[in-house]
């Protein structure tokens, strides 16, 4: 195990900059906001720690990248920012995300609410769900895992055509595995920063995907023609769990962060860290480190105190974890499309973050 640890001076420069205009901008934060941000370069901080590498296959080791500090992000002439005319994040569901339509709709609503909190200040809207056939994309069975896959690049073209006038970006989400080209095994997601579109799959986040008992395997693709999408009529959807929801929330906000121009974080443990495998993705925190948080704040224009003290992200997540659900979603017996049964709100995997959230709130409210 290896730790990527930067000096206090390096972290302070990465966060605040040496540019007088950006330093002045930072100094205008209120006392609580600066206290939280300054945790980035406090050596004894228990909120934002160094990056820990667990294997040689981890992202930083296998994908060397130049780190992006706040000044570099702020000065990037190619990054796109929301405007009054393009101020909405659209979510496009492709296929079902749950065993029933009602579960799928509820799952998308959870993700929408999470994005509204995370990207506070922007509007998050849902496009009408579409079946795979609507995208006219190519599909195949993966030779290694024998599961269905759809072509990510062709779905990006579909999303670009559907992009509404007021959209900052459109992100497609699906429970079907993705591949970017025939020579690739799979991809978790793919995005076009120029076009402001992305497609992300949660298929491999199910607890059983890598199991020998995975029920989504197909031996042969029965395809009558290029327009025959009947194989997706009853495709396998993993059981909805709190771990699946947590992984979905992390992936969605991480990838939308890229569309804002945030590159992979190499400063501190952060949601924007790259991940090469599921174990590494699970180790990423739920939120941004102060350096990446300042980037997002600059792009969206929210006040940190509104996002953390007044608005949803911390307090609502705590309430969501604590609350007994009175209006819970529903689920059917495994992999059924029939009438639903009761399902408790899946919050167990979020509970480990409650203590961290409470500490952040305490720093803001001192």
UniProtKB/TrEMBL annotation:
It holds the Pfam family Peptidase_M54. One of its GO terms (biological process) is proteolysis. InterPro entries: Archaemetzincin, MetalloPept_cat_dom_sf, Pept_M54_archaemetzincn. GO terms for molecular function: metal ion binding; metallopeptidase activity. The keyword 4Fe-4S does not apply. Signal peptide: none annotated. Its cofactor is Zn(2+). Coiled coil: none annotated. It comes from the Eukaryota. The keyword Hydrolase applies. Keywords: Hydrolase, Metal-binding, Metalloprotease, Protease, Zinc. Belongs to the peptidase M54 family. Probable zinc metalloprotease. This is Archaemetzincin-2.
């Amino acid at each position: 195990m290896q730790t990527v640890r930067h000096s206090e001076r390096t972290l302070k420069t990465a966060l605040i900059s040496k540019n007088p205009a950006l330093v002045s901008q930072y100094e205008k934060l209120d006392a609580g906001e600066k206290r939280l941000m300054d945790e980035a370069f406090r050596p004894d901080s228990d909120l934002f720690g160094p990056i820990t590498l667990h294997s040689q296959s981890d992202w930083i080791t296998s994908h060397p990248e130049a780190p992006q500090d706040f000044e570099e992000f702020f000065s990037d002439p190619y990054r796109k920012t929301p405007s009054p005319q393009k101020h909405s994040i659209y979510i496009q569901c492709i296929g079902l995300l749950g065993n029933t339509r009602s579960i799928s709709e509820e799952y998308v609503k959870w993700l929408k609410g999470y994005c509204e909190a995370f990207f506070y200040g922007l509007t998050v809207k849902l496009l009408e769900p579409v079946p795979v056939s609507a995208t006219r994309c190519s599909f195949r069975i993966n030779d290694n895992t024998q599961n269905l896959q759809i072509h990510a690049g062709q779905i990006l073209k579909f999303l670009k055509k559907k992009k509404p006038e007021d959209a900052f970006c459109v992100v497609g989400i699906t429970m079907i595995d993705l591949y970017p080209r025939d020579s690739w095994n799979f991809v978790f997601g793919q995005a076009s920063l120029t076009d402001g579109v992305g497609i992300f799959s949660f298929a491999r986040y199910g607890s059983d995907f890598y199991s020998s008992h995975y029920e989504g395997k197909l031996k042969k693709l029965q395809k009558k023609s290029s327009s025959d999408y009947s194989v997706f009529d009853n495709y396998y959807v993993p059981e909805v769990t709190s771990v699946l929801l947590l992984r979905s929330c992390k992936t969605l906000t991480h990838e939308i962060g890229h569309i804002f121009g945030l590159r992979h974080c190499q400063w501190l443990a952060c949601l924007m860290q790259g991940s090469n495998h599921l174990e590494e993705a699970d180790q990423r925190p739920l939120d941004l480190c102060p350096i990446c948080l300042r980037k997002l704040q600059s792009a969206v224009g929210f006040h940190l105190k509104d996002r953390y003290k007044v608005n949803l992200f911390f307090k609502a997540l705590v309430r969501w974890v604590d609350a007994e659900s009175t209006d819970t979603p529903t689920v059917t017996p495994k992999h059924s499309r029939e009438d639903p049964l009761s399902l408790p709100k899946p919050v167990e995997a979020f509970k480990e973050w409650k203590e961290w959230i409470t500490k952040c709130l305490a720093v803001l409210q001192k």
